[in-house]
Design brief:
By secondary structure, this protein is mostly helical. Helices cover 51% and strands 0% of the residues.
């Protein structure tokens, strides 16, 4: 059995979850916030070369060319 505080907390989490699912994104985000978010994402894409900012970058390393050393 949950105490009243725990019940309120869980109810508010469930309410937020349902609102978030219904809106498909952020809950209670106004147009100013959405505009600011879009500007910041644009800055990040420009800074890091565009592409998908949610994907982990792929690194490609070339093998170093080594010269054989003749034994003495």
């Amino acid at each position: 059995q949950l105490d009243p505080i725990q019940k309120l907390f869980l109810d508010s989490i469930r309410e937020y979850s349902s609102k978030s699912a219904a809106s498909g994104g952020l809950v209670d985000a106004g147009p100013a916030y959405e505009k600011n978010l879009a500007e910041e994402l644009t800055k990040l894409q420009r800074l890091y070369g565009g592409g998908d900012l949610t994907a982990f970058p792929e690194f490609k390393f070339t093998e170093p060319k080594l010269e054989e050393v003749a034994p003495k």
